[in-house]
Amino acid sequence: MSTRSVRLVCLLxxxxxxxxxxxxxxxxxxxxxxxxxxxxxxxxxxVQNAVSKGAVCLDGSPPAYHLDPGFGxxxxxxxxxxxxxxxxxxxxxxxxxxxxxxxxxxxxxPFIFLGIFSKSKTENPDFYNWNKVFVRYCDGGAxxxxxxxxxxATNLHFRxxxxxxxIIEDLLAKGLKDAKNAILSGGxxxxxxxxxxxxxxxxxxxxxxxxxxxxDAGYFIRVKNPLLTNVFESIFKDVVTLHGSTKxxxxxxxSRMKPELCFFPENIQRDIKTPFFTVMSAFDSxxxxxxxxxxxxxxxxxxxxxxxxxxxxxxxxxxxxxxxPKANDPKQRGVFIDSFNRHTQLELWWNKxxxxxxxxxxTIKVFGDWYYDRKxxxxxxxxxxxxxxxxxxxxxxxxxx
Length: 401
What we know:
Elements lengths: L2 H14 L6 H12 L5 E3 L1 E3 L17 E5 L8 E6 L8 H7 L13 E3 L17 E5 L24 H14 L7 E7 L3 H6 L1 H6 L6 E7 L14 H13 L7 H4 L21 E6 L3 H7 L4 H7 L4 H17 L9 E6 L24 H9 L6 E3 L8 E3 L5 E3 L2
Parallel strand pairs: 4-6, 4-7, 7-8, 8-9, 9-10, 10-11
Antiparallel strand pairs: 1-5, 2-3, 3-6, 12-13
Helix pairs in contact: 1-2
């Protein structure tokens, strides 16, 4: 990633660590840096009554989310985004995490809404006036953990599944139960629970006309080629064991294979009845870094990858495409797969300036059409090697193939 790209990401992260009194100033700096005129801060909602249900973050603090109410004809429409943030797979990892806003709500501050959460009808035509919810990720187990006992030596709580239930219950009471249209989405590590809980979420909304789910850069795969590193199976095995996730994983899957394999979307997607859509790069930077090498992005950016690296990219793309839902029913399983070496798209990349087209189509257009049943698409970019991401001097993100 370029120096200015790193600066942009750092600006976003740092802005979250600024006190509420400085939020306005930080917001203006963000807008100037990336021309995000429609970015805005949303205060945090702490779900205090979740504690009595045992639904708590790693450190025992109550879970939290950010809610921006809908308006106009969008008052009965809801989009809920489960925030990403990898996983903690051992006690040391989780203990360190519990001292950050990825493990404790006591350290969370107002959050920046942009992209698919934008209020601009021009930038976000299909969802601009919806109720928008950003669920904070503070359990480290992709909202799947459910262990009753707490080790007094660490005070770590593994209760992610309870957190999901408690937050949805809180939102139901605030109007979600009367939703006309709804989307459960998740980014990165929490693309998986957006699938795992998709049918359950749908069942809670009997009045809804349309309920669908959205996976943003969370379709990680179990590679089989020995030239590639099968890192995710090891990660998922540790997560399932530490967080006690097995009990919430689909029995239709765990009856056929080891629980950690049921953490791979490819192994549970066939049993999901609710329509879901996958947005991801075939060369997603997190997946590429994990499977091929952590310094690989610099080679992609400089366009000087070796023949061996290019062969690895081609094999990864091939395995990734085979793991996706088949293209025979795009109404139930829509996809938008590009080739840009980046991770997640619903925030920084969800606007007219930054949107990356595939065959003159953008995620914004394709997903909107798919969700509203205007057109069902299964879009896959034909590039078999990763495309670098550039950040131009005017501060706007732009991709070039």
